[in-house]
Amino acid sequence: MVKPVFTSRSIPMSEPQPTDPVPSYPVPTYSAYQVPDGPKVPTSPPYSPPAEVPAATDKPIELETWKSDADRKSAGVPTPLPAEERVGYALVGLGHLTLEEILPALSTCRKSKSVALVSGNPEKLQKVARQYGIKSENCFSYETYDQLKDNAEVQVIYIVLPNSMHAEFTIRGARAGKHILCEKPMANSVAECQAMIDACQQSNRKLMIAYRIQYEPYNRYVREQVQKQEFGKPKFVDAYNCQSSANPRHWRHIKALAGGGALPDIGLYCLNTTRFILGEEPVEVSAYVHSDPDNPLFREVEEVCTWQMKFPSGVIAQCATHYNVHEARQYRVMTERGGYELAQAYAYSGQKLTTSRADGAIVRQEQVSITPKNQFAMEMDVFSACILEDKVPYSGGEEGLQDQRIMEAIYQSARERRPIPLPIIEKKDAFRGQEPELD
């Protein structure tokens, strides 16, 4: 049944009166409200729109429809858990990502909340705690980090530290009885990744790597369409993720802390997202690495890395990453009868998707618009759901370990100037856990 929509207007007596049947609704009786120390204003009895209100907190309130199917549906009413039921997070490291993205995102989460902070800078720690209402007793240094074991409010530790610190703080956190969400790259070596997985398994704690792209709506849409072979089989992927840099003293330019340069920091998005979209693993890589010898930014880490990946299905992926050019983040997936091009593919927001396909004598290009969502809030709520519902994380430790194996093969190929074969993995999505339920 279509609910009526009303528009108020004055009808002059000389104008013909409407003859269509009008639904019978009570006509509000208008009166006047005296504004204190002001004029009288019209008023009517309070009106509350009809709504269906399920008792369960995870079921949305259903409001009456007021738009037709001609418009895109709204995102719907959020269903946040009560604060006391949300999963408590301790954020370890208060750098750019935590302060600019993660902490603000937590305020929009439905299943997650910030309850503790860990930092090596006492002044920064105290200020951020005041800003976000974190209790002083829930603020820890790197030296007192292990005391999180006795804090019942903390269920998850989110590791947002330089790459070289990921393994140590993951292992210590798991031994403290906490689940671990770790930023990418997982670590600086295959051995470190495996040690992190082992520590979490031994402590019966969950481990998830923060591959936010795997939960971002546009990238998930491209994966879905490619997997369905909407435009035929995928044949070629062209991906690049590039940005500039300016501070040679930043930890990302110190190999002992970062493990590498552009590849593990931003090139990893090209690698992981290509694997995610195709749902298969490369069987061979071939790479080239270069750094300007006169640029102090790249005394220890690479400036640019390009590589090709060959997949069992025959798909070839051409990837590139650069630390010294204007920002560019994009990929194209070319298929038998069309293609997908995602601009700002790896950015925190602003994705723009274009599809193209032949339609007789013309090439039809279409812009796909999807309601954007906060990627950090989504990944944290996905992990919280895994804890609340005892599910295997979709982007678990094995996913991060596989990326590290491939990155090491990429570096080997660049050093030895030859293609490097990789183990053949026949299983689809071999290193991923249970498919997440996303709103």
UniProtKB/TrEMBL annotation:
Biased composition (Pro residues): 42-52
Domain Gfo/Idh/MocA-like oxidoreductase C-terminal, residue spans: 223-422
Any Pfam family matching the protein: GFO_IDH_MocA
Domain of life (superkingdom): Bacteria
Name recorded for this polypeptide: Gfo/Idh/MocA family oxidoreductase
Organism per entry: Salmonirosea aquatica
MF GO annotations: nucleotide binding
Limits of the Gfo/Idh/MocA-like oxidoreductase N-terminal domain: 88-211
Region (Disordered): 1-57
